[in-house]
Amino acid sequence: MNLLTVIVLLPLAGFLLNGLLGGRLGRTFVSVVGCGLPILAFLATIKAVTILQTAGPDAALLEVAYRWASFGDQGFDVAFYFDRLTAVMTLIITGVGSLIHVYSTGYMKDDPGYARYFAYLNLFLFFMLTLVLGRSLLVCFVGWEGVGLASYLLIGFWFEDPAKAAAGKKAFITNRVGDAGFLLGLFLLYWALGTLNMDEINAAFAGPVAPAVSASLVGLLLFIGATGKSAQIPLHVWLPDAMAGPTPVSALIHAATMVTAGVYLVARLHGIYEHAPEASQIVAVIGVLTAFFAATIALVQTDIKKVLAYSTVSQLGLMFLALGVGAYGVAVFHVYTHAFFKACLFLGAGSVIHALGGEQDIRRMGGLWRRIPITFGTFAVATAAIAGIPPLAGFFSKDEILWFALASEHGGSPFLWVLGSTASLLTSFYMFRLLWLTFLTPSRMSHDTEHHVHESPFSMTGVLVVLALLSAIGGFFQLPHFLEPLLPMPAVSESLEHYEHSFVFVAVAVAFLGLATAAFMYRGGLARGEALAARFPRLHRLLDGKYYVDELYQAVLYRPLHWLSDRVFLGLGDRLLIDGSLHGLAAITRRASGRLSRIENGQLQWYVAMAVIGVVGCLVWVWRNG
Amino acid sequence: MTIDQLLVYFFGACALLGGVLMLVARHPMRVALALISCMLSLAGIYAMLGVHVVAVFQVLIYVGAVMVFMVYVIMLLDVRDPSFLRRYGHLLVPAVVLGALLAGALGVSAIRVGAPAIQPGTGPAPSYLVQPFSVEFLREYWLHFELTSVLLVAAVVAAIAIIRSGRRSDG
Amino acid sequence: MADTQLLLGLSFALFALGLVGVMVRRNALVMLMCMELMLNAVILALVTFSLETATLSGAVLVFLIFVVAAAEIAIAIPIVLQLSRQRSSLDVEGYDRLKG
């Protein structure tokens, strides 16, 4: 029964076919292969889920594909593991992934790199599936690195533009910094436990004998890897720049799937984090700080994709907040709902950009609700979902996160709840700001753009409708309860247990407050917003400059490293030491040979004298030694 | 001390004197003459020792052919060049020291006590008179004799080659 | 018969004299003649040994040396002639084209 291996390999086949033959066999071939294979993978996943359901709540399917390396009696296998958590992730990846592939056939229709695009997209799916289906942390890491690679290739897809290529590099390198932490955690786990299989790791930490390594240390190291991949502070700087890639890429990779890999990792290794209160606390604090600060930056962004990018960072922060207080199932629930509405938002933004012929600045949009109604409708639904308006999907997941942030026995505190709720308020505000400025205000478009506006083709709008529907009704499926056999909910402090419903009302009120404020501020256009910005110029500049984190890294990290590489390693190490020693050796040889060659002066009598010395020496030696 | 022994000592002294004169004389013709006298003294020693064949051929070939050739060449060339004015090269002192060392080493190795003695051969003592020597020579060592003729052919060819190349370079 | 050792000593002395002559004298022809002196010293030693061991092989070797000496002088003189023509002198200190 190789079902799991088939699920993983189908996108790989797509990559190979489109990569090697796509350029020659035309767009139709590329579209059919590029979309069909992920859809097949989705169907295969559904089949695997049905098999899993018959096997019980905490069952798992296990397939060992092959033995990767063996040394002595130990070794590493490539094995795939399918339990309920993996099932959820795989369904999201293949399902939303297939939808985005279909969307891309419309969006990238006129791009000359069509085949290359689908090849890379399928490659990404292959690696992402390896990541979530892998049983061993090593296989997971292969997928981890692979999605980083695919992300680099896709962000820098239009690589002729050096700025876009640089964005790809920035993403990959920032990921790599996080990966150092991941690897250290991996080494410690293998040294302490002798295995990298994630189910065995969880069992070891939950078992009677405490492992030789501190759970908090490993948890922290693995979380550093997660900050790189999921764009948390301090490694969040690559995600906004990653908007240089095509919009469907932003939807798939930087909204729905790749950036949730960090969340998946922590949720999967919940066994470690349940026994690591310090590490969990750090996860929660960093998560909520990221959520808050990213939301503040999104308030002043003027590029439609940048708003969504910071929104993603902020929502990821909320997911880590949930993980930090022990509500692993709730975090995965938010991954699930976030995939729907964020993909819908990004694809809607793509539709807007497509309709406006490339315009991305919201200051030059407006009045589009009548011109592109389907895009507007779906975008509005998704915006309401992310703001947390009931009964849409985002409301359910976000509400649970905030509740556990306050009430969980595993680290919940009012501080976390306050910051989280403030972040939610800001989220609601800036998302509705985006909606108003893009669609509902009077038009600020340039004359040519206005004539160009047209609704997107069905391949794009159809996907938008599906995703909007999912954003609307997806919340009714109680994912945390579905995952409870695997990821138990944390205990809730008793004093607060009765107040659960009141806090729900507070959350809903916060969402509507954001809506109302945004409508008030931006109803007529940019005027009120700009007046407010003029009143607080320094704050506005700080937020607009993204808290100057990039500049800080440039000064503190990049410049000293560059100096070190250039002056010390190149100038001293390479030129002086290595080249110098080689040249020195050559010079010594040359000089020595010059001096030695004086023996051969061409004069016969000198040679004869040398020979006689030798003969006399031989004679004396023979005489001495008999 | 018989007259034979005295003659041998005399001839030996002449040979030595000839050798020393070779080193000291300035004009190459005088050097040649000193060498001739040395060779003749050596021939005398061989004759006194009873090795007539070698004595005769020493005079015939060595003095009569080799040294005559040498003398012709000296006469043909202009010998008054820098080597005439300054006889000795810059290795004079080291060469003398080395020569003394060599002679000393050789002498010590030959004369020291406990040196393996020369074993006289078995069989009848050979005669070094011309006729019996020739018979023995060509009976036992005919191969060596033929090989020397090969060597002489090679020498003739080489001499012709040198003359030819010399003529070509002269143009 | 004369003392073997005396004859051998004479042979070594003549050999050493010839060697010193080769190393010391600057005229090319004189160098050649000193080499002849060395050969003669060897002949004397060979004859002495032949008499000592009462075999013929020493004397036979002497004949070979005669042949070699003749061949050598027949070749060496023309070579020296060529050399001296190139350098216009018989001074061996000027023959250093093979310096390296």
Detail the topology: elements first, then pairings.
The complex is a heterotrimer of chains A (626), B (171) and C (100).
Chain A: H1 3-55, E1 61-71, E2 74-82, H2 84-107, H3 114-133, H4 137-155, H5 162-193, H6 198-206, H7 215-229, H8 238-241, H9 247-256, H10 261-268, H11 270-274, H12 277-298, H13 304-324, H14 328-355, H15 373-387, H16 393-407, H17 414-440, H18 447-452, H19 458-473, H20 479-483, H21 500-522, H22 527-535, H23 537-544, H24 549-596, H25 604-624
Antiparallel strand pairs in A: 1-2
Chain B: H1 3-24, H2 28-49, H3 52-76, H4 82-85, H5 92-111, H6 130-140, H7 142-170
Helix pairs in contact in B: 1-2, 2-3
Chain C: H1 4-24, H2 28-53, H3 57-87
Brief write-up:
The complex is a heterotrimer of chains A (626), B (171) and C (100). Chain A is mainly alpha-helical and 626 residues long.
Distance between the termini of chain A: 87 Å
Q: From the alpha carbons, calculate the radius of gyration of chain C and give it in angstroms.
A: 17 Å
The profile of the biggest β sheet of chain C is:
none
What's the order of the H and E elements of chain C?
Answer: HHH
Structural class by helix and strand composition of chain A: mainly alpha
Q: How would the global form of chain A be characterised?
A: globular
What class, by secondary structure content of chain C?
A: mainly alpha
Q: How many separate helices of chain A?
A: 25
Please supply descriptive tags for the structure shown above.
heterotrimer, A: 626 residues, mainly alpha, 25 helices, C: 100 residues, Helix Hairpins, 3 helices, 78% helix, elongated
